[in-house]
Amino acid sequence: YQRRVHGNPIPSNMAASSLSSPVRFEQASLDLGGYWGPVASSIDWCERNYVMSYYVGEWWNAWSSLAITAIAAVGFIESYKNRNGRRFLYIWPLLMLVGVGSFLFHGTLTYAGQLMDELPMMWCLGLWIYINVFMEAPHKSRRVRRMRICVAVVLFVYLLAATIVHSLYAFTTVFQLHFALQIACCLIYVVRHRLVYEKTCPDVGRLQRWYFYSLLAAAAVWVLDQQLCSTLHSLPLGFPNPQLHAVWHVLIGYNCYVGLAFARLVRYLYLTRGSKCAVRWWCWVLPRVSDSVGDCNDIVVDEEDTTLKHVHECTLGRPSLSSSTPYTAPTHSVSPGPASKGA
């Protein structure tokens, strides 16, 4: 059959190796026909197609994707209510889009649906890298502000180029390696932040461990679903396929939530110099950073070495007005800026 995207034939120069022979983990003869036609994506997962519904290609993989959207919505509401700062308000909608795109990909098995899943993943991880790199960046340093702009521009240009290349050539293996490399970059910073702040707040270490273990578990089920696909479809005693790729969606959604809770806590500890540590655990597994991690604006910074000198206590993302005594550095005075609402 001829593969199509949006009803139009895919040009012959567009990743012929990827789109003409998609990566499969089961026999195509076992799949059923469905509303969206033959598979047009560059990869077809272990779940058999159109078995549960004529309109949904991979039933369990599609609906489990919405777990990512749901947990991202919870994180966005929590960050908005606690005034956690713009950086966190930007990444949650991207993560919601990943879940919606994954639903479209697994539900339709089209190339357009695949791009709606994979491209938001790249951009979401790009913003996650930016958050980790500038976790301890002071606000009023011109040098740091210029550096943040430069890094943001470089990341944007890089991700834009990666988006164009991946859209044209659908490199399945290259995309997966690129995804793993982005996660590895973030892990380096996560470990570094733990080493710095764990003594100040034990919950930093606990969050980092949950982040690492959930990522390891998600990676394990993702690999097993591919390598043991035929075995999973022929389990003894008639047990059905456990649909490990659907489990991956749930685990990676939880991993993203824990990782961003970790980032919010580290950012808060940096801004307040570890004056408070407020993490609540719902049912012992779902962390909630209950205190504000707001980006306070009244931070006094030494412009020479860009180190934090003083920050007023933050309550619900707003600088406290209770302290009227200006901060005096040990060697020279630095006047704090006027108190204003946090981002």
Short description:
By secondary structure, this protein is mostly helical. It has helices spanning 16-19, 59-81, 86-108, 111-133, 142-169, 172-197, 202-227, 229-232, 244-272, and strands at residues 4-5, 8-9, 23-24, 43-44, 279-282, 286-289, 299-301, 308-311, 314-315, 318-319.
- Inertia-based shape: globular
Compute the number of helices. 9
* Major β-sheet annotation: 2 strands, antiparallel
Kindly report the average pLDDT value: 75
* Biggest sheet strand line-up: 1-2
| Helicity level | 40-55%
Explain the overall architecture:
By secondary structure, the chain is mostly helical. Strand 9 and strand 10 form a beta hairpin. Helix 6 packs antiparallel against helix 7. The longest helix is centred in the last third of the chain and has 29 residues. The radius of gyration is 23 Å and the shape is globular. The N and C termini lie far apart (53 Å).
